[in-house]
Amino acid sequence: MLAALSTAHQIGLGLSGLVFVVFALTSAMLIPRRWPDFPGDKLGPFLAVCFVLFAGMLTAVYIFGKESSPPEKHHEAAPLRL
Prior knowledge:
Layout: H1 7-34, H2 43-64
């Protein structure tokens, strides 16, 4: 199904997915090495950022994942049979 999308839609989905994955890996692997108590007392803002990124990813899938409308076909009148 991804191959059926236009290039712009593929790029949009890819970039939004990349942001989501980079945030997940950073918050799971890099930040806890420096601050072992992460998120600690910053749990509220961390959850807010998680929710915003989750909602953004869902919105990107909704916007970029739908197919463009097919061009309208002109129906020709059927030939008259005698």
